[in-house]
Amino acid sequence: MARQERAIRTRRTILDAAAAVFDERGYTSATIGEILGRAGVTKGALYFHFGSKEELALGIFEEQLAVTLPPQSSKLQELVDSGLVLALRLCTDPLVRASVGLALDQGALGLDRTPAFRMWIDQITRTLAEAKARGELLPHVEVAETAELLVGSFSGVQLLSQLRCQRQDLEQRVVVLFQHMLPGIAVPAVLARLDISADRGRRALDAGRLEPATGKAAVDAEADRRAGEVAGR
Amino acid sequence: MARQERAIRTRRTILDAAAAVFDERGYTSATIGEILGRAGVTKGALYFHFGSKEELALGIFEEQLAVTLPPQSSKLQELVDSGLVLALRLCTDPLVRASVGLALDQGALGLDRTPAFRMWIDQITRTLAEAKARGELLPHVEVAETAELLVGSFSGVQLLSQLRCQRQDLEQRVVVLFQHMLPGIAVPAVLARLDISADRGRRALDAGRLEPATGKAAVDAEADRRAGEVAGR
């Protein structure tokens, strides 16, 4: 158990170093050597967890999702909470910033950025499907379509916030996003009870917990990608 | 008059060449020399219209906006039309694609990308303000905030569409965006009459016209930027 804990801690140290290097130098220019130097671990330790630069990026995507928030009375409140927590973490956690930066880096040579979006879209699709099963959604809502829209819109809103003011107004912009979207998604009785305030992210995060990821999702995504290559997709 | 027409045509030739070079090589790597070669014009002709690589980018931003669509019975229908026309032109016009690509290129060294977003936001703000004056908007809508949200969301939705399928489903994604946003913006009587179908962009563009820009907006934006520098903003 102690050994596993140590491995998880080393994994996170490596990911934090990779996030910092990707953020400063860009994915394409960053080298494993620089990440090793920054992390202060051995080559063997790094390659035990990550086989390549791309696996490091996948690890960052996955780690960013490893947050558990407290359950709420509606699934749509949980959706709002996760969006506002992501907005907050984008302002405070370099690993989360690197994750979104990599996903949106059109110049990242050799990096398949689709797993990042797929992870976000899958997570929101699950939450919306549960909301639908509980009768929280308006009848016309198509869960997959709405999930893609939310992920796309959030990505663009945070890009604009970054450009305009280094994300200082990001939480408020995400509030505005939900205020505009939710009337087209939620039944009125649920809509009326949603708390969509800018400090909601801080409160939800304080009540939740961050859990270091195990690396499984990254491995799955990589296997999926390789299977796709074999199938000639 | 003939001379002015020729100048406008040369300006567009240069911008098309710049758009192609920026698209292929990225803003940072592109050189004026390559753009000259592609455009087949003299150095003097290029510098008559554009003083620098950044002015070429501003010219592309401006040219992309130079489209006039037929007036509709509601201002919100005009907003929908302009969004769907932009989606269509992103799929068909390399200059429009370059414009959005430049605006979203985080690696574009030395390029101030804010004028592009400002032009889009200003245009939508004007349309929404007119819609508000006509009583088309729900009372709580704040025009500037909603305009920023629409531009941010559109940017992200098109990025995701580009990543997933080279923008083949962009028009449909923009339909979904409007379907989700407009119930939070429009009064019901206007909402019920809006045409938000994927082929709306094609119909609006066929009935409208593209007008070559004169370069004035780019000059204004540059003057604005320089004034900002002087004021130490």
From TrEMBL, chains A, B:
<feature type="domain" description="HTH tetR-type">
    <location>
        <begin position="8"/>
        <end position="68"/>
    </location>
</feature>
<dbReference type="InterPro" id="IPR009057">
    <property type="entry name" value="Homeodomain-like_sf"/>
</dbReference>
<dbReference type="InterPro" id="IPR047923">
    <property type="entry name" value="ArpA-like"/>
</dbReference>
<dbReference type="GO" id="GO:0000976">
    <property type="term" value="F:transcription cis-regulatory region binding"/>
</dbReference>
<protein>
    <submittedName>
        <fullName>Transcriptional regulator, TetR family</fullName>
    </submittedName>
</protein>
<dbReference type="GO" id="GO:0003700">
    <property type="term" value="F:DNA-binding transcription factor activity"/>
</dbReference>
<feature type="DNA-binding region" description="H-T-H motif">
    <location>
        <begin position="31"/>
        <end position="50"/>
    </location>
</feature>
<feature type="compositionally biased region" description="Basic and acidic residues">
    <location>
        <begin position="222"/>
        <end position="233"/>
    </location>
</feature>
<dbReference type="InterPro" id="IPR036271">
    <property type="entry name" value="Tet_transcr_reg_TetR-rel_C_sf"/>
</dbReference>
<dbReference type="InterPro" id="IPR001647">
    <property type="entry name" value="HTH_TetR"/>
</dbReference>
<dbReference type="Pfam" id="PF00440">
    <property type="entry name" value="TetR_N"/>
</dbReference>
<keyword id="KW-0238">DNA-binding</keyword>
<feature type="region of interest" description="Disordered">
    <location>
        <begin position="213"/>
        <end position="233"/>
    </location>
</feature>
<dbReference type="InterPro" id="IPR050109">
    <property type="entry name" value="HTH-type_TetR-like_transc_reg"/>
</dbReference>
<keyword id="KW-0804">Transcription</keyword>
<dbReference type="InterPro" id="IPR023772">
    <property type="entry name" value="DNA-bd_HTH_TetR-type_CS"/>
</dbReference>
<keyword id="KW-0805">Transcription regulation</keyword>
